[in-house]
Design goal:
Blueprint (H helix, E strand, L loop, with lengths): L1 E6 L8 H15 L4 E6 L20 H10 L3 E5 H6 L11 E4 L1 H10 L2 E4 L1
Parallel strand pairs: 1-2, 1-5, 2-3, 3-4
Length: about 120
Amino acid sequence: MKILIIINDAPYGTEKAYNALRLANQLGKDHETVLVRIFLMADAASCAVANQSTPNGYYNIERMLKLALSKGAEVKICGSCAEARGLKNVPLIEGTELSTMAELTNWVVDSDKVLVF
């Protein structure tokens, strides 16, 4: 099974990215045969910025994305969304990559389930 998770909200301020990544990581833990794909759009493009620093005891989106990647998830970032936010030349989390709407479209068509946060 292939599951696509599309995240639209910023990494902090709401808990949408946090909850989407909680789900992705639980899928990676409990269902190793499921291919999890994560596409970061709009303000969620900031989720892939490397070297995030959060207070002790507060969730860290970078660590959560790295865990998802270590479990085999694929993570792509909307290139035009990243460019609009000045993120095209910012260091990104290793294993993530800039992508396109065409690739998102292909992922949607190729997925068994699509979840949007």
